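Let's study a protein:

___
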Amino acid sequence: MTEITDVAYRPGLNAPIGMDVIDFAELRSRARRREIDLGGPQRPDFHHLIHVHADADPLRHTVDFTEHVIPPGGWLWVRPGQVHQYGALTRSRGTIVIWRPGFVPVDPPPPETPVLPAGARRNAVDLALRHLVCDYADLGSMTLEAHNRSLRRLLEVLLLRLAHAGSAPPPSIPSGGPFERFRDAVERDFTRTHRVADYAAGLGYSTRTLTRATLSATGRSAKAYLDDRIILEAKRLLVHTDRSSADVARHLGFTAPGDFSKFFRKHDGRSPLAFRAEARGLELT
């Protein structure tokens, strides 16, 4: 069992406030200094935008129990709070942009899988990255305030280009709208209440409004979205800690361990302990 390492944002000494741009070699160097195992589960409180160079080897990267392969020229966006693990970084080369939540005014919906832009879209994404990297390195030509403002705009352009580089455009999610507020409330309170009606009442919406907004943004109902978040945290705790099933149930707000077991089996098809054993490659005794 490997515990999750919580990683706080800590940029380089010369980095602008709120964001940083590093290559894979620098990431390995920083991890050694901070004694972070990049191959182990880690939960950063900031965004990672991982880009594998076009002439490099693919990179395996696991995000919340899903293993991805970032191809040469590909990108993967890891959000704050997600548990992720790097593959063999020494076998690949690339660039990572990291930034704190709120550094850009609005984060477009990140793709859940690696993105490999092609044709004109690839050229536009590559140009946006080059412009960002160039401006990032040009620290002395403007005031710090102006430099940060410039980097915010350039990062936003890169994110928008990536959000539209796939085969289908991302859903339009109004800033500060019902789904965004529901998403934030779920992240804050999913261990306290499992009822969509409670979130609706607290946010001043009807349950129907939250369901419509969540369906539009994710293709899932509000209840399914909430249940998915509970299941994800349950899996994180089962795999990355040695807490008992009853302790996990209490942490997630279930009044009885049996209710948690039924809930978990309904969504995963296995008991909590059977999931743990399979995820760790063990036999259930």
Remarks:
- Residues 5-163 form a domain with the Jelly Rolls fold (CATH 2.60.120.10).
- The two ends are 17 Å apart (CA to CA).
